[in-house]
Specification:
Strand content: under 5%
Strand order of the largest sheet: 1-2-3
Order of helices and strands: EHHEEHHH
Structural class: mainly alpha
Distance between the termini: 69 Å
Number of strands: 3
Number of helices: 5
Amino acid sequence: MATTGPLPSASLGIGEVAERTGLSVHALRFYEREGLLAGPVHRTAGGRRRYSAADVEWLGICVRLRESGMPLAGLKRFAALVRQGPGNEAERLRLLDAHQRRVEDRIRALEECRSIIARKVGVYAEHVARGTAAGVWDPTVGVDRP
């Protein structure tokens, strides 16, 4: 998905894009191979990749979608819809809405985990402050020790 021709005026090399997005150079090449970019990657006459500000913005969205758990297949589908242009906004909305619901479910589950951890931190902090482990769950209680 590479094109040659006039380069965007403020184009960036792959290393600069990696730095700005937090993606590795390897990951950027992978994204291109897998069709995860919203548009073609421009190349210099020497074949070096050059990215526009819009490419960097899109990659930032991709990073957040992946960090939030969107599968590569979902990201690939979203990118394909974006590349198709106007007319498929309802499908894009369905894809993003389903992902948002999964993220919200995961946030609720993590909040429950955080609550349990906070309770345990409180219990252990109290026992450490008192200098005793009495009353803290101990799986060795009742086990015959030599």
